[in-house]
Amino acid sequence: MAQWSLLTPHSPETSNIHASPDGLGTSSDHDDASYDPHITVDALFDRYAASRPNATAIIGPSGRVTYRELFERSEALASRLISLGATAGDFIAIMAGRGTETIVAMIAILKIGAAFVPLDPIYPREQLLRILDDCHPKAVLAAKPFVELCRSIAPTDAQLLPLGDIGSRDGVLPAPAARVSAESSSPAYVMYTSGSTGRPKGVVVPHRAIVRLVRAQTYVGFAADEVFLHLAPLAFDASTFEIWGALLNGGSIAIVEEPNPSLDTIAEAIQRYGATTVWLTAGLFHLMVDHHLSAFKGVRQLLAGGDVLSPRHVRKIREAFPHCRFVNGYGPTENTTFTCCFPVTAETWTDGPLPIGSPIAHGDIAVIDEHFRPVAKGDVGQLAAFGDGLAIGYLGQPEQTREKFVELVGPDGEARRCYLTGDLVRQRNDGLIEFLGRADRQVKIAGRRIELDEIEHVIRRDAGVADAAVVAMTDASGNKRIAAIVVATDNDRHLPAPEFATGLAVRLADRLPQFQIPSRIEVVPAFPLNPSGKVDRKHLTALLEDQPSKLPDMPASIARLERQGVARVIEEVWRSVLRCGPIEPQQTFFDLGGRSLQLIEAHAVLQQAIGRNFDVVLMFRHPRLHELASALTELIGSARQSPADRVATPTRWHEPRDRAARLQRARRSR
């Protein structure tokens, strides 16, 4: 074990960020908001349910839910879980979207001393099976749309319980003695991240880490009058901040229930529910600033992160709303959502790349070299995270846990446990930390942490692939993309490269989450090797940059598009957003390498291009160009279209010149 020197939380301007009218706030001067490392999440929630029973805990499309109602419903479900044999130390999976019943389930699971495992319904069946096999849940709680899916994939010894069917009729609430209480060091949830071996890694997070994130903090204010927008997927640890930041401080959660909300839906939810604290991924933040800047009027605290932030967009939000506290947040799942934060003020930042700031309260960091020795200020090193936010480790993977969670000896001779993030950083002269990139093969795209080696592993398992290499690239717009270079097996080398790549992409859709599927697949006869005989990834990346993706020439398809005005508009928008070549009508947005975030952007641009509002769900429901064109043609031609649906009056929208001008205006407005 080597010695280390700590960088401690430093943010003097945030010592008393915000205090609510009833005295709750983040300052340690307020006993009600103090940090107790020994309390559990459910005990702290119960405290607010008792002291503020009639306060609003949840706001959403289904109405308002008070703390008393949330307490009673979670008690009823806890009783039901105990009757099924669940107890402290068990894992209970939740297959559901954002909603009141999901939050009820989380609280109920914690009340019986168990830990919840959020499952993302968008994950392919094969990945869900791997996760369930890994965590061996005692029960699976499923929202009604996913009951049949869970019935087909849940382990045979796991109880399946549909959410929403629990009420007082389920029995008498158990006496406190019937439950085995958890401790603050006990697991609260298991969140799965990408794993380099092809096996997802279950990060086991204790109660203490959640409480540490949202109590007596310095980076934002947590108080009873804050309304937290709940927009993050449950399997994404930003949801930890959104849910418990509210419920463990007496505040409210404003839930966006739509699984794939458009920018319009997000903006409308912020305004309708009066959200005061909002967290967005970097990509979504950029889109909202471009298309719905006014939505942030009334927002007191805006956080963004998960990737590098654009200084232009940060400057724009600061100029529009100087009194809104804007924070650049950084942190791996293994240290519970946030490790460092940088509150942007006129004094701390004027322009240029944004630092990730300094460690938040109840934690420390160190910048170390490959021998775990501290580096000098200004030198590049790996960021190591210490403190109460640390996860317990990786479920069922002791070797990986020992590799990433290590003990280092400090100047005082004390050994302290830390997490090695694998992120390269540098401490500036002013003490703030700059993020420089990854030391390994892990990247973040649209806020999601992705192990390139995991994708390689899955591709190599394909029957038609002899070998594969996966790299991350940055396109002309500055967006990160995943590219796969593959060598086909002898049996498949006769196939044309586009046909082979398309078939492989289709098969990968059953094995990988959508955000992990390469946006570009190139087929090569063999890989270039470096002098040591390893695949020369830098050379592969250079080859991809020198040879832009070439889609097959399809003159007949293009001619059809020329005759179909709406299809032509869609093609222009898609090509503009995705920076791709000509598109066949039967191709889907995702076939072309699109991601959900880009689909949301395309929706915003397309609405302006055709002069009509329409639900983003239409684009998910009709992902193929020709299907979407038919649906939009019917929408535009409907005589029942209300004036409120119009974005702008389209004048001869089918004429190329007007259409192109309108598209350019839409793109410039972003």
Taking the alpha carbons of the first and last residues, their distance comes to 51 Å
Structural class: alpha/beta
Specify the number of helices: 20
Q: Look up the CATH topology of the domain at 62-182.
A: Rossmann fold
**Share of helix among residues?**
25-40%
Largest sheet data = 5 strands, mixed
Radius of gyration: 25 Å
Query: Uncertain segments of ≥5 residues (pLDDT<50)?
Result: 11-31, 168-177, 550-564, 639-670
Strand content: 15-25%
Q: How are the strands of the biggest sheet laid out side by side?
A: 11-12-13-14-15
**What is the number of beta strands?**
26
Mean pLDDT: 82
In CATH terms, what is the architecture of the domain at 62-182? Answer: 3-Layer(aba) Sandwich
* The CATH top-level class label of the domain at 62-182: Alpha Beta
User: Overall 3D geometry?
Assistant: globular
Biased composition (Polar residues): 1-18
Biased composition (Basic and acidic residues): 652-661
Organism: Consotaella salsifontis
Keywords: Phosphopantetheine, Phosphoprotein
